[in-house]
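TL;DR need structure tokens for one chain.
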Amino acid sequence: MIELTKDNFDELVIESKKLVLVDFFSDGCEPCKALLPHMEELSKSYEGKLEFYKFNTTKARRLAIREKVLGLPTILIYENGVKKDELTKEEATIENIEKMILKSL
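>> reply
TL;DR here they are.
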């Protein structure tokens, strides 16, 4: 998984013509840390079907607010740069994330 920054977010997510999943996290978010190894596995399982990125909200809060990320962890799927689906906080389980991915493909 590639880590996005405020400098490349729009280019790789908003301007992308591909299906993109973004895992929004922060350094102090324990549920985010627990989810990360599972997200890495999903990124391998669905390689070539959608792009997987992670974004540290600690480093770019304004961008996170712009994307309406108000709780963590938040997993968003974008299609053609438009937010298509979202899971936040307790809903962001590995099972729910995989269901969301399958629904989007």
